[in-house]
Known about the structure:
Helix content: 25-40%
CATH architecture: Alpha-Beta Barrel
Order of helices and strands: EHHEHEHEHEEEHHH
Number of strands: 7
Strand content: 15-25%
Number of domains: 1
Distance between the termini: 39 Å
CATH superfamily: Aconitase, domain 4
Structural class: alpha/beta
Strand order of the largest sheet: 4-3-2-1-5-6-7
Amino acid sequence: MEPIRTLRSRTAVLAMSDVDTDQIIPARFLTTTTREGLGKHLFADWRYGADGAPRADFPLNRPQAEGCAILVAGNNFGCGSSREHAPWALTDYGFRAVVSTQIADIFRNNSLKNGLLPVLVDPATHRWLLEHAGAEVSIDLESTTLTLPTGQVARFPLEPFARYCLMNGIDELGFLLGRDRQIAAYEARARIA
């Protein structure tokens, strides 16, 4: 995973509420155990018509959404079944953060473990972001803040361990593997005792 310390990007906006994980990545694409290639199937049933052609009216198919690393989503994003493929598809597509007023707990936890930053903001900040698609915002993990182009700053909650892992580009296993010497020393002491 790439570390995230600060993230500055234009925003893509998907204003729909209650977007579930099957809409993020439809079940028919869950046949892989790797992340690579899932981005092309992100929101597949909304992004593409029956003929496979991109739908011009879908927000991520518009030219101004190209290259955006921050997705501003409607309320209750990521609800539904637990699947790591949902954050995998978002990160493979190029998103590094999802911003909303409410993000489903299981999706939020899966995101944190897979290098996608879920950012919860207050309703006023969220409304501003929904109304200003393409605005360039800045997210700072050190201070856990999101800054709008107006200068307004919104704080967001993030547990310290998840923040540490995101800032250092590691997952939980990577954290443990980085403590291999300490673990071996503890085990050696425990065998002696």
